[in-house]
């Protein structure tokens, strides 16, 4: 059984370790823990991980956040993965820092990366893991906030939250979304 695990973010050194790139950070940690590396492929950096008989195709799109749909559609089709076996990891300003929320489907909630995926894939019936980055910014400063770095106190807590996000990925693929939501969404 195959799964497409997508971490949304923006390519380029100027975006490294920004709040908006938390999807990339989670996949980097997952790949490192699995002793695999990403290779540059069509529409993104891709790695493959085997977990208990399942194949996880990890994708960090190279199309920039707001145009992620083309990369997602390409890799779903290329690997013949059904949309119900896809998980997208994304930052969320409406959740407090470090909060992790897994959902089986839903709206884009104003997130342009999810909006483009839904537009290109043709529906919103795919799982998403929202990683809370907080929303403590003045009105009109959202872009600067999500493209900003985590402050030191949050940066210190990131490894633990990223590890939990990696556990959620494994559970999603091994136990399914319902059990994974029951186990992790209340933490």
How would you explain this protein's 3D organization?
With 187 residues, the protein is an alpha/beta fold. The protein has 6 helices and 7 strands; from the N terminus they run βαβββαββαβααα. Strand 3 and strand 4 form a beta hairpin. Helix 1 crosses helix 5, helix 2 packs across helix 3 and helix 5 packs antiparallel against helix 6. The radius of gyration is 15 Å and the shape is globular. The model has no long low-confidence stretch (mean pLDDT 94). It has a single domain, classed as Peptidyl-tRNA hydrolase (Rossmann fold), CATH 3.40.50.1470. Helix content is 37%, strand content 22%. The longest helix is centred in the C-terminal third of the chain and has 24 residues. The chain has a 7-stranded mixed beta sheet, with helices on both faces.
What distinguishing features does this structure have?
alpha/beta; Rossmann fold; 37% helix; seven-stranded mixed sheet
Nutshell version of this structure?
With 187 residues, the chain is an alpha/beta fold.
Structural class: alpha/beta
Distance between the termini: 28 Å
Give the averaged pLDDT, no decimals.
94
CATH secondary-structure class: Alpha Beta
Number of helices: 6
Fourth-level CATH superfamily: Peptidyl-tRNA hydrolase
Residue share in β-strands = 15-25%
Low-confidence runs of at least 5 consecutive residues: none
Please give the number of β-strands.
Answer: 7
Under CATH, the topology is which?
Rossmann fold
Identify the overall geometry.
Answer: globular
Using only CA atoms, what is the Rg?
15 Å
Main sheet attributes: strand count, strand direction, barrel closure = 7 strands, mixed
Give the H and E element order. EHEEEHEEHEHHH
Instruction: Give the second-level CATH assignment, the architecture.
Output: 3-Layer(aba) Sandwich
Number of domains: 1
In what order do the strands lie side by side in the largest sheet? 2-3-4-1-5-7-6
DSSP helix fraction: 25-40%
């Amino acid at each position: 059984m195959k799964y497409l695990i997508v971490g949304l973010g923006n390519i380029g050194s100027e975006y490294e370790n920004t709040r908006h790139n938390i999807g990339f950070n989670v996949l980097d940690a997952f790949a490192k823990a699995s002793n695999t590396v990403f290779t540059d492929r069509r529409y993104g950096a891709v790695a493959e991980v085997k977990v208990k008989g399942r194949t996880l195709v990890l994708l960090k799109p190279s199309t920039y956040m707001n145009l992620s749909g083309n990369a997602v559609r390409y890799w779903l089709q290329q690997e013949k993965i059904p949309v119900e076996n896809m998980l997208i990891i994304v930052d969320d300003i409406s959740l407090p820092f470090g909060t992790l929320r897994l959902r089986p489907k839903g709206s884009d909630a104003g997130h342009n990366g999810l909006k483009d995926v839904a537009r290109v894939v043709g529906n919103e019936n795919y799982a998403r893991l929202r990683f809370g980055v907080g929303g403590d910014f003045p009105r009109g400063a959202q872009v600067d906030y999500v493209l900003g770095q985590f402050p030191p106190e949050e940066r210190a807590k990131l490894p633990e939250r990223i590890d939990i996000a990696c556990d959620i990925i494994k559970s999603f693929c091994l136990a399914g979304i319902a059990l994974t939501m029951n186990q992790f969404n209340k933490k």
